Amino acid sequence: MLISDYVKRDLEFRIRSGSDLPEKLTLGAIAEIYGVSATPVRLALEELVAENLIIRQENGRLKLNAPERKRRAGAPPARPTEWEDVLARELILMSLRGEGGFVREEAMAERHGIGRTLLRRVFARLAGGGLLEHVPRRGWRVPTFRPEEMDAYLVVRESLEVKALELARPHLGRAVIASMIEGNSPGAVAAESIDNRLHGYFIEQSGNRYIGSFFESHGRYYNALFDYAALGAEVVAEMAEQHLEILHNVARGRWSRAQRALAHHIQSQKPVMEAMIATLTPPSPSTARKA
Fold first, then answer.
1. One domain, residues 248 and 233
2. Helix (H, G, I), strand (E, B), or coil: what is residue 82?
3. Would you place residue 284 in the very low, low, confident or very high pLDDT band (cuts 50, 70, 90)?
4. Do 181 and 248 meet the contact criterion of CB atoms below 8 Å apart?
5. Are the C-beta atoms of residues 15 and 5 closer than 8 Å to each other?
6. If DSSP states are collapsed to H, E and C, what string results for 204-269?
7. Are β-strands 139-142 and 54-56 bridged in parallel, bridged antiparallel, or unpaired?
8. Using CB atoms within 10 A of its CB, is residue 27 exposed (0-12), middle (13-18) or buried (19+)?
């Protein structure tokens, strides 16, 4: 299901069921509800106007067709498959397994049962984050994960993130830090949904656009790898403990300790990645024969 189809069906359900809608039916207000751009919302609204569920007034503003709200709503639509997450996961696995190279659009679209137009849109977004590279006249190339490149990235990441924390010191909000501490509490660990905002928060509050530019250009690929690797209760608990050490030191103004804890946390992600890669790497033929 395309996101515009989902927005259209969900808006129809909300209209018929009397669910909450923005006071003013504007593209921006509706797009904010679904966390999407204006384009799928515009397409959805055009269909709802054609079906007379929404009326376009002479001044161009939209309003609900009140009589239509009395009709039966039916069941709310299921959210569409998050194809960006599905395809990102597959590309990450390919990269970690050393299966990088050019991806055949037709084969991947057929395997997932989606159109090539949708596939290209998703690939274009993933390419912006470093998970893919678009090569003119050749197609899409998956980068092959290389441990030595990860080591080099971690060196630069550590230096820049520690510097970002130093620059961010005057701009850090106590309430934000407190909420992140709560987000790494034992309850969050038990739910395996710990708060990982501290990295982006320090970078943003540093106010240094060159630091931000580095992470925008190179961070998403490695963040995706680290996020995929960080599975399992023990890993989640360890990450939360490290986050708390950083955050508690920040809250108490122990800046040197906070910076050392941040550096340790960043470097500790390397063995997590190595363990994950080991589970994805098939044994060599000689090892398999011995087994």
1. yes
2. coil
3. very low
4. yes
5. no
6. HHHCCHHHHHHHHHHHHHHHHHHHHHCCCHHHHHHHHHHHHHHHHHHHCCCHHHHHHHHHHHHHCH
7. unpaired
8. middle
Same domain for 131 and 105: yes
Domain-terminating residue out of 96, 127, 142: 142
* Cross-sheet strand order for the sheet of 133-135: 101-103, 139-142, 133-135
Residue 51 counted as domain residue: yes
**The domain containing residue 42 runs over which residues?**
3-70
75: in domain: no
Percent of all residues in the chain with a pLDDT value above 70, rounded to a whole number: 86
**Tell me, what CATH number does 101's domain have?**
1.10.10.10
Mean pLDDT is highest, among 113-117, 151-155, 219-223, 233-237, for 151-155
Closest CA to 59 of 24, 30, 33: 24
Distance of CA 128 to the CA centre of its chain: 12
Query: Could you report the per-residue pLDDT of 201-238, keeping only the tens digit for each?
Result: 999 999 999 999 999 888 878 877 776 665 677 888 89
